[in-house]
Design brief:
heterodimer, A: 2 domains, 11 helices, B: MetI-like fold, 12 helices, 75% helix
């Protein structure tokens, strides 16, 4: 009981500290803007730990963060093998293949007004569908190993990427295109020097959306059949064994992988589209 | 008019491609069946056929091509097989029957809608809090944005089992998954929308001596509508995926996800494809319905 009271006090304390920081004179500095969410996150984890211990919540409902951390540290080799299987082999290969295929298709489509008018509504339509449902079919075709996960990811990222790239390649104005024309630029010259750079913010938007989709596809596809390694496999079997600390450790892996993947793409975006208003300081 | 023609052309091309793909995908199975039925196939031994390329087999056994579109358990069913299966399991069945996709679709749809309503409701509330409280904005908003980059759907199997172990099952666990999947897109979109009025408009309300709640109801909320509908469309699609995935880990007996799983266990490819199309039709109609509401609402408000 004392732990529960302590949790409530800690929560109030964290909130009070954040309120002070947010209302204080330094609220707009970068350090405080980083500090406040960190304090919030740490408070949540601490309150979680105290409540689980104080109320004696059983492991099969919610493990305490310290238990999850211990499990994480104990099974680093397993987690690393799962990470390699699902994220590096399944998600990343599918992401690269799917995004490149969509990019090349977008360039082909872009040359024909008719194709673009036809493909854009279809692409938008397909991008809203629950494509992850193709997983059982693709697992049946490509087997249980990472190739089928990669195939699911290819299908999932293709259309969002295609729609974004096609929209980006239309971004230039008639005036800009006319200027290239007056320079007697060839199609490929004006493509590489004008339209591709102008499309970059859209392309990166598609790439960023696709990072999350790739991880979702690779993990959910493993629920339909996988070798005995992989994030999705470990989650579904550990849930069956009620080893929830292992499930949470895998979720931490997935969360870290997702954030790093997204962060890496966002960092490349900052370097490539430094000229765009949203990137200027 | 021209765009309709263009869309139809693309769709026709995709269907044609699908029919063409059926031939090499199914040829091996068809030849095995044909051989058992006593037909002459080339090459005759099954082992040689297993090692031969699919296109080579098609070239040598032209007579088998029509059969690739009519197999009972094809690797890739032809479009008309899927359409017939869809028709048989929707219109031709009593909608309360376990064989009816309408029944399974309703099981999934009810969880989706329940979760969607809860998720968007909470999302809007949190967004209102974030816009009005600086400390909430600074503490919660970064986490809401980070949550968009992680595959939170991985939580789904655990939620089902944990809720089951404390005695909750049926529609609620699926609705919980749907709710948290639609929650974060709505929070992020609504915060953007509630912040969309510019300084000039906010200043005008201040000169009218409008209170905070008047400013909210008369300016911020109406201004956020386009953003709200954009995030609702993302949210409903995510909710449906959540409900379908929520049916996978427990071996649920009803719902579109259960149909997908049962089809994949028993190799009923036509059933998988028809469940997939039912899910696609459901998602498309939900998004279209929201799109229609969006157009009507924005038109009434003079924004579209």
């Amino acid at each position: 009981m004392i732990l529960v009271v302590f949790a409530l006090v800690l929560w109030a304390l964290g909130w009070w500290l954040n309120a002070r920081l947010a209302a204080g004179p330094q609220a707009d500095t970068r350090a405080v803007q980083l500090l406040v969410p960190v304090i919030f996150g740490l408070t949540i984890v601490a309150v979680w730990e105290l409540l689980v211990r104080g109320l004696n919540v059983p492991l099969v409902i919610l493990p305490a963060p310290s238990v999850i951390a211990a499990r994480f540290a104990d099974s680093l080799t397993t987690l690393w093998a799962d990470f390699v299987q699902t994220i590096l082999k399944g998600a990343l290969s599918g992401y690269v293949i799917g995004c490149s295929a969509a990019f090349l298709t977008a360039i082909a489509v872009d040359r024909s007004e008719f194709l673009r008018m036809g493909l854009l509504p279809v692409g938008n339509f397909v991008a809203a569908l629950p494509i992850v449902g193709t997983a059982p079919i693709l697992v049946m075709w490509f087997g249980f190993d990472w190739q089928s996960k990669s195939a699911v990811v290819v299908v999932m990222v293709f259309f969002p990427m295609l729609v974004n790239t096609v929209a980006g390649l239309r971004e230039t104005t008639a005036m800009q295109r006319d200027l290239m024309e007056t320079y007697a630029a060839t199609y490929w010259q004006s493509f590489f020097k004008l339209r591709l750079p102008a499309a970059m913010p859209f392309i990166f938007n598609g790439l960023k959306i696709s990072t999350t989709l790739a991880l979702i596809g690779a993990i959910v596809a493993e629920f339909f059949g996988s070798p005995i390694v992989g994030v999705g496999f470990r989650i579904s079997t550990s849930v069956g064994q009620l080893a929830l600390d292992m499930v949470w450790a895998e979720i931490v892996v997935a969360a870290l992988a997702g954030t790093l993947f997204y962060g890496a793409v966002a960092a490349i975006e900052r370097a490539v589209t430094f000229w765009h208003p949203s990137q200027r300081k | 008019m021209k765009s309709v023609l263009a869309v139809l052309t693309v769709v026709a091309a995709l269907v044609a491609l699908w029919y063409a793909a059926c031939v090499p995908m199914n040829i091996k199975g068809v030849l095995t069946e044909a051989e058992r039925a006593g037909a002459e196939v080339e090459p005759a031994s099954p082992r040689e056929r297993r090692e031969a390329s699919a296109f080579g087999l098609v070239a040598k056994n032209g007579f088998a091509i029509p059969a690739t579109w009519a197999q009972e358990r094809p690797r890739l069913p032809a479009p008309h097989q899927v359409v017939i299966e869809l028709w048989d399991t929707t219109v031709a069945q009593n909608i309360t029957s376990k064989r009816s996709l309408v029944y399974h679709g309703w099981v999934t749809l009810s969880a989706t809608l329940m979760g969607f309503v809860i998720g968007t409701g909470l999302g809007i509330l949190l967004a209102v809090g974030i816009v009005h409280s600086r400390v909430m904005d600074m503490s919660v908003m970064p986490w809401a944005i980070v949550s968009q980059t992680i595959p939170i759907i991985a939580l789904a199997p655990m939620i089902i089992v944990v809720l089951y172990s404390i005695g909750i099952q049926g529609i609620i666990p699926k609705a919980v998954i749907s709710a948290y999947l639609s929650f974060f897109p709505v929070v992020v979109g609504m915060v953007k929308g509630l912040r969309s009025p510019d300084a000039m408009q906010l200043d005008l309300l201040r000169t009218y001596n409008a209170s905070q709640s008047q400013g909210f109801w008369k300016l911020r909320l109406p201004a956020s509508m386009p953003y709200l509908f954009a995030s609702l469309k993302i949210g409903i699609a995510a909710s449906l995926v959540g409900a379908i995935v929520g049916e996978l880990p427990t071996g649920a007996v009803a719902g579109l996800g259960a149909r997908l799983l049962a089809g994949s266990y028993y190799g009923q490819t036509v059933q998988i494809w028809s469940a997939l199309f039912a899910a696609a039709i459901l998602a498309a109609s939900l998004v279209a319905l929201l799109g229609l509401m969006e157009r009507k609402v924005l038109k009434r408000m003079g924004m579209a």
